[in-house]
Amino acid sequence: MTFFVIIEGVLAFLLVAGGIFAFNGSLGMLRLEDFYMRLHGPTKGTTLGIGCVLLASMLYFTVTQREFHVQELLITLFLFLTAPVTGHMLAKTGLHMHVRFSPRSRGSLPEFHDEDVGQGRVARPARARHPWRTRKARRSRLRQGETS
Count of domains in the chain? Predict the structure, then answer.
């Protein structure tokens, strides 16, 4: 066997594994019951899927152009660092907003500390009122002869 046949086998394995991981992550978003369970799909499965595809890309361009390509490795590292942090922030937001969870979820609210859950429901921010949509602004435009 030649070197290129082995590299093609490794590339094929990484691409197929990446596709399977990404598909399982997407399927997890569809099939799992509540918000907290659905966080596992994109943060674990899809991250590994994209990581495998990026590693295959890095390996392919390193072999074909005979120079080391770092861009894909940096993207993979950035993805592996940011995806878990994003999942954690979404879970904390869900706890503060008191998002309902399925009884099949592991853990319950009484086992969390008060600072994790918060004392009361977090109020949603008020919607911004645009000055051109208020009645007063509309009346002043009509007085000046403008049409809305």
Answer: 1
